[in-house]
């Protein structure tokens, strides 16, 4: 279901008006958001005014762009003109509104897309569940007793609930891949420095990336090309791909159904090997230390002045990060450098790496735990146990929703060499065509167009 292409085609041909599409999206937000809590601010006036302008362009015979009339939302750490960027915290609520849109929002709007909402997140993107003391918990559209994942949970849930065609999130240690997996949508963490971060509130400046959530792989590819200002590579021949299935760490505490799905993928005729990555526990620890140190350093002035405005769990983690010795941070950066070189060598032998994005379906809100080495541990900290180490690679990583009709969603992550996002899209399209991968949309919302 290539929703974005369908909407744009219908709007540009005047089969539907942009005003109709945007009104449907806003009505879906009014209907479904009270159930899941993914939207923080609805941009109704701006959205309807933009839609009317698009309709005027169509009436004049002008092309509004490849995303004409397509509604989208953004995680509340992207600057939206005339809106205060809170990054999920009351600490920033009194700051002046943004003077302009973030660069990526401008790119999307220039292509005809229409922002309709800002979306909930873990405070300052520090968590994997979108349990926000200030703005509430974002619940999973497939079972509101469960988490949507985080820290971009509002972004994933909004697409899964059918409230908008796509959304933007950020991914430092798994904040796109985890909620995409738990909400059953496609997500992409692009290679580091692929998409501009101007106008995006930072968490960890050397690991932050931003990317989209969509309901199909073709939609994901379309949005990525616009965000990154890249031309479409066209169809790629992937018959000779070599895929490595990550073992060891990436199979511990993983539900058997997820492992079976990986086995199914490896049996579709593409050459597949088994691979155990060296020192992956150390790599995950380095990722923890880098984000904690960089986040803590960024927030130190606020922590000294207004510590009580933070969510206590976020505050304590930032304080711990700020107290880390410089030598510890530098050692973690050395491990990052080694790991990137190590992964680069691996891509001399393989084209793609495949692993679980999460080891289980979404945890219950009243039991916020996941298994780590067979023991219950904090979901807020550990839902990203399989995404976090791979973040240090700097590689593009696709979160792929498994086709699980009648079951709770769960996804896989597919890793490619930097610059090879086009191979991820082609492989995702193959799995979508074979029925192995499929987004799970809980409500029809705008999907009736």
TrEMBL record:
InterPro entries: Amidase, Amidase_dom, AS_sf, Carboxybiuret_hydro_AtzE. Residues 21-424 form the Amidase domain. GO terms for molecular function: catalytic activity. This is Asp-tRNAAsn/Glu-tRNAGln amidotransferase A subunit or related amidase (GatA). It comes from Commensalibacter communis.
């Amino acid at each position: 279901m290539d929703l974005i292409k369908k909407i744009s085609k219908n709007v540009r041909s005047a089969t539907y008006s942009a005003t109709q599409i945007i009104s449907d999206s806003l009505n879906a937000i009014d209907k479904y958001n009270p159930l899941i809590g993914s939207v923080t601010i609805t941009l109704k006036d701006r959205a309807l005014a933009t839609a009317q302008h698009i309709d005027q362009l169509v009436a004049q015979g002008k092309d509004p762009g490849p995303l004409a009339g397509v509604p989208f939302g953004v995680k509340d750490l992207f600057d939206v003109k005339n809106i205060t960027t809170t990054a999920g915290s009351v600490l920033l609520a009194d700051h002046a509104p943004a003077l302009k849109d973030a660069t990526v929002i401008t790119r999307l709007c220039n292509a005809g897309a229409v922002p309709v909402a800002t979306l909930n997140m873990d405070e300052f993107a520090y968590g994997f569940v979108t349990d926000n003391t200030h703005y509430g918990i974002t619940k999973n559209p497939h079972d509101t007793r469960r988490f949507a994942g985080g820290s971009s949970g509002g972004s994933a849930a909004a697409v899964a609930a059918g409230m908008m065609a796509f959304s933007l999130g950020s991914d430092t240690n798994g904040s796109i891949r985890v909620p995409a997996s738990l909400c059953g949508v496609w997500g992409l963490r692009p290679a580091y420095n692929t998409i501009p971060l101007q106008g995006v509130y930072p968490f960890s400046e050397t690991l932050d990336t931003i990317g989209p959530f969509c309901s199909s792989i073709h939609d994901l590819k379309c949005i990525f090309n616009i965000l990154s200002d890249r031309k479409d590579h066209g169809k790629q021949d992937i018959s000779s791909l070599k895929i490595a299935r990550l073992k060891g760490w990436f199979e511990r505490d993983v539900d058997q159904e997820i492992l079976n799905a990986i086995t199914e993928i490896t049996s579709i005729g593409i050459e597949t090997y088994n691979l155990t990555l060296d020192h992956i526990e150390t790599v995950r620890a380095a990722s923890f230390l880098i984000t904690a140190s960089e986040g803590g350093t960024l927030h130190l002035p606020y922590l000294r002045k207004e510590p009580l405005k933070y969510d206590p769990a976020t505050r304590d983690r930032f304080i711990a990060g700020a107290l880390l010795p410089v030598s510890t941070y530098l050692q973690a950066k050395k491990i990052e450098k080694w790991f990137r070189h190590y992964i680069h060598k691996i891509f001399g032998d393989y084209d793609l790496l495949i692993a679980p994005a999460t080891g289980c379906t979404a945890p219950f809100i009243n039991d916020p735990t996941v298994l780590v080495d067979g023991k219950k541990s904090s979901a807020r900290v550990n839902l990203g146990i399989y995404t976090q180490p791979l973040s240090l690679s700097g590689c593009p990583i696709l979160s792929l929703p498994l086709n699980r009709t009648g079951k709770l969603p769960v996804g896989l992550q597919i890793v490619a060499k930097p610059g090879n996002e086009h191979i991820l899209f082609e492989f995702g399209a193959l799995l979508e065509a074979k029925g192995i991968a499929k987004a799970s949309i809980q409500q029809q919302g705008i999907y009736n167009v």
